[in-house]
Amino acid sequence: MNIDSIKNGYVIDHIKAGRAMQIYNLLNLNNLDCQVAIITNAKSKKSGKKDIIKIDRNIPINIDALGFIDHSVTVNVVKDDKIIEKKKLKLPEKIVNLAKCNNPRCITSIEKNLDQIFLLTDKENEVYRCMYCEMSLKKK
Amino acid sequence: MKHLIDIKDLSIKEIDDMIKVAKDIITNEDKYSHKCDGKKLATLFFEPSTRTRLSFESAMLSLGGNVLGFSEASSSSVSKGETVSDTIRVVGCYSDIIAMRHPKEGAPLVASMKSSVPIINAGDGGHNHPTQTLTDLLTINIEKGRLDNLTIGLCGDLKFGRTVHSLITAMSRYKNIKFVLISPDELKLPEYVKKEVLEKNNIEYAETRNIEEYMSDLDILYMTRVQRERFFNEEDYIRLKDYYILNKKKLDKAKKDLCIMHPLPRVNEISTDIDDDERACYFKQANYGKYIRMALILKMLEVK
User: Fold this and answer.
1) How many CB atoms lie within 10 A of CB B78?
2) Could you give the residue ranges of the DSSP H alpha helices within chain B?
């Protein structure tokens, strides 16, 4: 299978197999008019299989959002056909409006204008809690 | 400006200082009777709670201040659809400090983010109730003479009981504290409290359904009410509400200086035949609540 290399843009690599569409939707890549390639179940030496997304344009990327979904991914920044930077991601300390609190007793359940904010409370177990009611977030 | 949303907002030193002030108020109440002259406390109770509201109001009146507010959401502009943020911004124009109870968890935090005056969380759903915890700490300090080296039994609704969660969090910061968690399976302490508070701080604890199993080890027995308003299913409430009823017989093996506490109101979980027992501290506890709230108001208004 041949997919063109990109000139200026990003290669989001080492995405856990099956998560590419989640990232595609989160980054609103469907709104771009440039070439975007989604490769699923590509061979991976490390994990057997992985997903890859290639974006043929330098757009602002929400690194926190990516880190929240899958902090094992690598974001390769491509300029003039060359990788000029490999960004390693980490779990963000705080995420805003990337997930919704499911606690029916939470103030966000009735006040829709509030930002949905979650804080990383347990790095080891990747636990995020709602800043308002402290209910843990179940990551999909 | 300082707010009190969660008991963790206060350091051990701040709590110790407040306990010291509260004890001084108990012995020298007259000295404090004009400390808040001209100051106004707004009690915003979006959910009814007679005793907490009266305790706050009594505390402010005893300091020479005035009180205003409402005791249920239906008598406020919330019933017209106003947000917490807007209510708080308006009430901040008319008061120097706000005590707020709300059925939704996190509402006082939202209020504190927009408020021009200090906010005290007077209870938010099943989440936090820091002034009850301060009351509990003052009670333990006075009745046991210490806040360390204690075995504390927590009995009843440990799942939704916010007073229990806050008390565990607060007591876990003191040395050599052990907990005995007494509850039916359906109302056990949530796993995250065990992991993120007890286990993280290496606190020893035991779990049991039997209230008498560890009775002889306890220095404090903290009873709680199974709260109807926390259940989505009435049948579950009816099945669990009378699971524990503490009576004289169950205290047979208890220590002579056991301290029996309850955040009140009680329903059936403590038999009235215990009320005259020297070990029953729950009415004293309600009284101490006023004094620690006085100390808190002084601290938050920065009144010397």
Assistant:
1) 19
2) 12-27, 50-62, 84-91, 107-114, 130-144, 162-171, 191-193, 234-240, 282-300
Collect all residues of chain A within an 8 Å Cβ-Cβ radius of residue B102.
107
pLDDT by residue (tens digit) across B68-121? 999 887 766 666 678 999 999 999 999 999 999 999 999 999 999 999 999 999
Contact B11, B54 (CB under 8 A): no
CB contact under 8 A, A106 and B103: no
Amino acid at the residue B226:
V
Phi and psi torsions of B123, nearest 5° = 120, 125
Is CATH 3.40.50.300 what the domain over A94-138 is classified as, yes or no? no
Residues B178 and B163 in one domain: yes
Q: What ipTM, to 2 d.p.?
A: 0.87
Contacts of B13 (CB under 8 A, 6+ apart): none
Q: Chain B within 8 Å of A103 (Cβ-Cβ)?
A: yes
Distance from CA of B127 to the nearest CA of A (A): 7
The answer, for A108 touching chain B at a CB cutoff of 8 Å, is yes
Pairing of strands A48-55, A36-44: antiparallel
**A contacts of B127 (beta carbons < 8 Å):** 105, 133-134
- Residues of chain A contacting residue B104, judged by C-beta atoms under 8 Å apart: 105-107, 109-110, 133
What's the rounded mean pLDDT across residues A14-18? 92
Contact: A105, B110; criterion CB under 8 Å: no
Shortest CA gap A86–chain B (Å)? 35
CA angle, B188 then B191 then B196, to 5°: 130
Q: What is the CATH number of the domain that holds B253?
A: 3.40.50.1370
Do residues B225 and B157 share a domain?
Answer: yes
Residue B84 burial (CB count, 10 A): 26
Helix/strand/coil for B105: strand
User: Do the domain assignments include residue B2?
Assistant: no
Predicted local confidence at residue B238, as pLDDT: 82
* Structural domain of B106: 7-129+289-300
